[in-house]
Design a protein that fits this description.
34% of the residues lie in helices and 26% in strands. It has 10 helices and 18 strands. It has helices spanning 104-107, 114-138, 144-167, 174-180, 200-216, 221-237, 292-306, 322-329, 343-347, 376-383, and strands at 14-15, 23-31, 37-44, 47-55, 61-67, 74-80, 83-89, 94-100, 109-111, 183-186, 189-192, 261-263, 269-271, 279-285, 311-317, 335-338, 355-359, 365-368. The strands form 5 sheets. The protein has a 5-stranded mixed β-sheet with strand order 1-4-3-6-7. The protein has a 5-stranded mixed β-sheet with strand order 16-15-14-17-18, with helices on one face. Strands 5-2-8-9 form a 4-stranded mixed β-sheet. Strand 12 (261-263) and strand 13 form a beta hairpin. Helix 2 (114-138) packs antiparallel against helix 3, helix 5 packs antiparallel against helix 6 and helix 5 (200-216) packs across helix 8. The chain starts with 13 loop residues before the first strand and ends with a helix.
Length: 384
Amino acid sequence: MKKTLAILMAGATVWTACESGPKFRVEGTVEDAKDSMLYLVQSSLDGPVRLDSVRLTEDGRFAFEAAAPGEAPEFYALQVGGHVVNFSVDSTETIRVSAKLGTMEREYSIEGNVSSQRIRDISRMQLEVQERLVALERNEDLLPGDLRDSIEGLIEGYKDRMRKEYIFSDPESAAAYYAVCQSLTDVGGTFLLFNPLTNRADVKCYATVATAWDNAYHDAPRTQQLCNMAIKGMDNTAAPQQRVLDVDESKVSEAGIFDITLPDIDSRLRSIKELKGKVVLLDFVIYGANGSSERMRLLRSLYEKYHGQGFEIYQVSVDQDIHFWKFSVENLPWVCVHETDGSAVSLYNVTDIPTFFLVNRDNEIVLRSDFMEGTLEDNVMKLL
């Protein structure tokens, strides 16, 4: 079976020169590999980059040094022919690897950081699942329906283990990144184990790791990759606009404002009445809905333009998944709160999402989006 670097993206293999500055070191032995070429490869976002190589002698010893990663962990591999050992590097540590060529992927030992040991465990499980997948596809006794069910059960069981043991348990780690970005191969070719572009549940995995990496490694290219995949996945897999609740319109007053007190991303209770003295956009949203990202960009532009004049946004999310909500609002500058029981939606007679209200400086509702004339910006300017 063909061996691949598990998290590499397509791209040409190139050589790179050594650089000055802080370095990490990887050393150890590969037994039974005399005269074989051993390569140190960086698993970059643009494809595999060969950093160094050595022809192994009788004792199989090797040692490489390379430029240490910058602001975030980076991924590397030791490669001999089709045999690969994947690992991660945080900074300037020394990674020690001991392996035999014939069992290199399965039985190697690795020291230097915890994530590399967890990546080793993931790689072993991935190899086992890959072999079982191939065996199922070659089993001529299975009917098509049974084959499909067996493959789906195998893959889903493996994904569930990745979610529980590696992704949700420690999303900031390099092992979590490795787990969520891995791929498998079947008769149709190579596919992502977690594909946020087609699977709503997989978006949650990407969003969880993306949020953790954004907090820990905000400016890293891999963080941007995770965030982009999660956001695009949310857009691709979003349900159509939903009608949330139908309630008696007599319960909603046209004057004044009903108070809403809901938790923000830090679990701090935020009341809309606290914003008295400002012009407020009370906005009911589903961040996972189609068009949500574009709408947030428009609101951000409006907020940045008029916030200094007393404009504020109080945004109520009714997303069912709180992880998606937290990821979506992480970098929004206005008040973002979340509700799960529908009470605020019912109170304001919201039947379609998104729906917004404009509130004047005296905490009085003066406009509902259903009956707005002119642009939102025009109406905000009138109240300011």
